[in-house]
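User: Reviewer 2 asked us to show a designed sequence for the structure in our supplementary figure. I'm pasting the structure tokens here. Could you produce the per-position amino acids so we can include them in the response letter?
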């Protein structure tokens, strides 16, 4: 592997770049970067990264391929928009990977719902409407509760539950306002012109991490989400693995995720999936052609004969053609808490980090919010205050450690001062 090159596609704000850099260095792999930075600046971070445009994946892929001095041996992407660009680059270079069409379907909630329905999977009643639709007559069409979703935002951003017509109209107006915000419009994605409305799906929620190798699926982990996600917003907090669900439920989850990935056409590369389970069975929420996002990947640690591997290490090896069929998740249970933002305001400081780190089983507490920055909670927000990581022999103890550590943190968030025009 010492002479091989991997091209990593990631947003400039991606948390996972460092972990891939460390894994590449350990493997002796030459890692190239492509990010959505300004192409008019001369290498501002001195990492020799290629500047790309995520909103133009096909033309950006061709331009990047033409600008390469050396053909990479593999492409790896983190994030939804980077994954689509990576698929186009793989197609240009004729490298193994998910197809552009499959990745596009996976990140467009309407296209995914239609593919799942055509494959005979459980889907809620759903409809897609223009974002500028008059919500008042539209609200009369539904049996409540329902959930309103943007088609192409991630991390539960913009997802809201409505239990009656009045709540529907309020949520629709709120989502319209979000989709008209500058940071969303700059993505130049036609999907932001529409809203998905679907029946609320009750049940417990799970996440699945796996890879596909030329159509063959290798599951890595099922994460329990022990906190109920019933709305009105859907902020994820705790992930714990291995799952404590009954074996039959876990088997159904793995089987359904595989069927959903095939329905989308995902055929080679990482897959991250979210689903709900109730008395009707498994209903897919999302199947993405990318790995788990943010720093959450740190919760996953694997063993291969004679080695301990991170998820980044495993994905690099898989992208380079190495078999990962003998890779197993470690014996210990592990988990991560995505620290929620309790209120909008100016973040000043966090106290109690040392006390949180001292909780038995806690590996680290990472505060990613920057002092003096504006914190915005869901559904408008798109980030967390930070992450707490735990590892213990038993999953129940992991969950308890995460909750104990979080309870010891004290955040100082001050009210924003109004801007006078």
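Assistant: Here is a per-position design you can include in the supplement:
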């Amino acid at each position: 592997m010492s002479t091989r090159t991997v091209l990593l596609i990631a947003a400039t704000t991606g948390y996972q770049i460092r972990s891939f850099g460390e894994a590449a260095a350990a493997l002796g792999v030459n890692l190239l970067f492509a990010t959505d930075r300004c192409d008019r600046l001369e290498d501002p971070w001195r990492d020799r990264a290629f500047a790309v445009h995520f909103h133009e994946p096909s033309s950006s892929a061709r331009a990047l391929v033409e600008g390469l001095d050396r053909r990479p041996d593999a492409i790896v992407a983190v994030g939804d928009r980077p994954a689509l660009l990576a698929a186009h680059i793989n197609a240009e270079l004729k490298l193994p990977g998910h197809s552009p069409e499959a990745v596009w379907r996976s990140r467009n909630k309407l296209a995914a719902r239609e593919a799942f329905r055509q494959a005979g999977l459980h889907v809620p009643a759903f409809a897609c409407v223009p974002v500028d639709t008059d919500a008042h007559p539209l609200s009369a069409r539904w049996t409540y509760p329902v959930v309103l979703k943007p088609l192409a935002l991630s991390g539960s951003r913009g997802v809201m539950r409505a239990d009656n017509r009045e709540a529907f109209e309020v949520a629709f107006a709120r989502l319209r306002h979000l989709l008209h915000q500058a940071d969303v419009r700059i993505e130049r994605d036609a999907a932001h012109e529409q809203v998905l409305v679907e029946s609320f799906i009750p049940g417990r929620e799970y996440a699945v991490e796996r890879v596909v190798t030329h159509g063959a699926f290798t599951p890595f982990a099922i994460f329990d989400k022990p906190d109920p996600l019933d709305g009105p917003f859907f902020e994820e907090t705790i992930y714990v693995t291995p799952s404590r669900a009954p074996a039959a439920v876990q088997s159904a989850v793995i089987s359904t995720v595989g069927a959903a990935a095939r329905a989308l056409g995902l055929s080679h590369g990482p897959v991250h999936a979210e689903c709900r389970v109730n008395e009707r069975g498994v209903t897919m929420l999302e199947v993405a052609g990318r790995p788990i996002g943010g720093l959450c990947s740190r919760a996953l640690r694997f063993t291969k004969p004679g080695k301990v591997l991170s998820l980044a290490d495993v994905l690099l090896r898989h992208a380079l053609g190495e078999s990962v069929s003998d890779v197993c998740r470690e014996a210990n249970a592990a988990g991560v808490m995505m620290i929620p933002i309790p209120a909008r305001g100016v973040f000043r400081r966090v106290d109690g980090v040392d006390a949180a780190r001292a909780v038995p089983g806690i590996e680290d507490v990472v505060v990613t919010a920057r002092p003096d920055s504006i914190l915005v909670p869901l559904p408008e927000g798109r980030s967390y205050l930070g992450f707490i990581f735990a590892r213990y022999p038993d999953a129940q103890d992991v969950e308890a450690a995460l909750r104990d550590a979080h309870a010891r943190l004290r955040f100082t968030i001050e009210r924003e001062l109004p801007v006078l025009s």
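For the response letter, you might also mention the following. The chain is about 30% helix and 30% strand. The longest strand covers residues 204-213.
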